[in-house]
Write a structure and sequence with these properties.
With about 260 residues, the chain is an alpha+beta fold. It has two domains: about 130 residues, 2-Layer Sandwich (Beta Polymerase, domain 2), CATH 3.30.460; about 120 residues, Four Helix Bundle (Hemerythrin (Met), subunit A). Helix content is about 45%, strand content about 15%. The protein has nine helices and six strands, in the order αββαββββααααααα. Strands 3-4-5-2-1-6 form a six-stranded mixed β-sheet, with helices on both faces.
Length: about 260
Amino acid sequence: MTHSLPIGSDDFERMTAALTAAVREHPALTGLVFLGSSSHAAASRRDEWSDHDFFALAAPGAGAAARRDLDWLPDRERLVLTAREGEIGFVAVYDHGHVLEFALAEPGELAGALAEEATVAVDDDEGSTARLIAQSQARAASLPTGDALNDTRLVLVKLLIGTGRLRRGETINGGQFIRQWAVKHLVLALRARAQEQGGEPAGLEPTRRFEATFPEIAADIEAAIAQPAERAAKSLFELTRRELEPEWNEFPTEAADAIARRLGW
């Protein structure tokens, strides 16, 4: 198998500069914010798979028109794909495999946005973009901590429903319940329990870098979901009980026992 050469750190910074210049020159765009590992604060996390994640801010009333045309993106001749994600979201892929993920929106359309690490690269004279990002970061910081008990209950429910769907013959939908939704809630529950015991907050996307924090559990989850779907479900069920039930009086043991009986586990 051959791989396209990734862009290097110099190329990453060149793209950052090119995006900044493109937004400054665009008549309808007034702000640019680099997010996550694209920001200065999280630059140490970048590797060959890091994307450019950003908000491009349009002047009030100009968002819809600005979203009709992406010709302002740098190196347009090297773009091999662009696609919409919802009303204001976009992705773009270059011929060397580098990805841009961004929202192109008016400030009002990002009124409920959440942000963690962020670098404001372009702003208007009133500092509207910086103010929006400060509000987004404040909202993210004030989010309630995870609910370990509720997410544990949801793991059990998703495994029960998913296995039932499999046994009915709905292999795709059942597999979604098991490999996607049950795993999501398991990760949330593990993060929340760790935080209750003094660990770090989960962040906006709890599955990101889960492997670095919980390497052994992550390996066990990966091994579980690599199995055929019903065996994956049973392995995740056993993993949930092994990692969360001991020394936790609130664990829904009665429900777990009932689900095990129903499924013949």
